[in-house]
Amino acid sequence: MEWLKIDDVAKRSGLTKRTIRYYEQIGLIPPPERSDGGYRLYTEEHVTLLLKITNAKDVLGFSLQELQEFIALSDALELQKMDYRQVKGTSLQREKLEKILETTLEQLRLIELKKQNILKVEEDIVSLKNRAEAALKRWAEEDAK
Amino acid sequence: MEWLKIDDVAKRSGLTKRTIRYYEQIGLIPPPERSDGGYRLYTEEHVTLLLKITNAKDVLGFSLQELQEFIALSDALELQKMDYRQVKGTSLQREKLEKILETTLEQLRLIELKKQNILKVEEDIVSLKNRAEAALKRWAEEDAK
DNA sequence: ATTAACGTTTACGTCAACGTTAATGTTTAC
DNA sequence: GTAAACATTAACGTTGACGTAAACGTTAAT
Q: Which residue windows are transmembrane per the record (chains A, B) (predicted)?
């Protein structure tokens, strides 16, 4: 297994070392393995997770706490899968699943909203662009005389 | 002219009074008129601007400082328009216009990126949703026996 | 003309999300 | 085996974006 040291992860993810440790501290990423001397040893999966996190953070404007809830959701679903054969669904398990489903639906609605709004902003900027272009064109014509 | 007081603006924009004053303080919105006693007197346009600002902030995840630059851009373009007849385009004016155009193009590229990323996140969530649905379905089938 | 409701400025408080520094231990390269 | 480079924890600092409270002035309604 090829381990990554924290600075490697930092470079690959575009985050700082401090930020990576901070994310671990608040439980946003799982604690990595450690070397005998106590160095953190990461895998590629950590990098992938960090990239997803930053992406979701940027895109959805989520706070880290909100992201935690989202991550917890995915984890819960993984756990659910594993439990599945052993603990055949008690109603408690089912409620959990339904809660997960509900939350994802809410997230999707939120994303639709974001999409709508991004279009509005885009329109504003395009109109700005057009006006700038028009002004430049007038300028050029004026100049040609 | 119908003036709006700060609380009216707060209600219409969904912001707090503090936030509105803060936005004025950092130059994000133009200082409104004042009554003889010093009360702030707003117009509908202030409301519109504030809505645009919050929208852009939410959607693009811009900091207030980045938004300032964006606002400054629009303002510069308005000014450009007014200057147009008086100061026939010196090359300095043209450079300004070109800079504005360039910035809008950059903003549009940034928005494209956001769109791409939002799709990625959406996919992740959809896959989460599907897994939750599948699990629930298995549960229901199991239950039917 | 008073009073309740609303506004003003000033200033200190807060919270998230890190940055930075210090004191110390670990790996790696030569 | 000894630097140089890199890591660790702990703790304090910083910045943006407001919240909140105090002391006080203004408007609106009765």
A: none
The answer on pLDDT for A112 being more than 60 is yes
Helix orientation angle between A91-144 and A44-60, rounded to the nearest 10 degrees: 60
What ipTM, to 2 d.p.? 0.84
DSSP-assigned states of every residue in B3-24: -B-HHHHHHHHT--HHHHHHHH
Closest-CA residue to A67 (of B125, B113, B15): B125
C-alpha to C-alpha distance for B58 and B72, rounded to whole angstroms: 19
DSSP for residue A51: H
Domains annotated on chain B, with CATH: 1-60 (1.10.1660.10), 62-144 (no CATH)
Footprint of strand C on the protein (CB under 7 A): A 16, 18-19, 22, 26, 35-39, 63-65; B 5-8, 17, 21, 38-40
Res. B143 pLDDT band, cuts 50 70 90: low
- Higher-pLDDT residue of B32 and B107 is B32
Element housing A109 (H / E): helix A91-144
User: What is the helix (H) or strand (E) element at residue B101, kind and residue range?
Assistant: helix B91-144
With CB atoms and an 8 Å threshold, state whether B117 touches A61: no
pLDDT digits (tens, 9 = 90+) for B7-63: 999 999 999 999 999 999 999 999 999 999 999 999 999 999 999 999 989 888 889
Comparing every residue's Cα with the C1' atom of nucleotide D27, the nearest one is B37
Contact B57, B14 (CB under 8 A): no
Nucleotides of chain D within 7 Å of a protein C-beta?
Answer: 6-9, 16-20, 25-27
At residue A92, the pLDDT reads 60
Q: What is the rounded CA–CA span in Å between residue B133 and residue B121?
A: 18
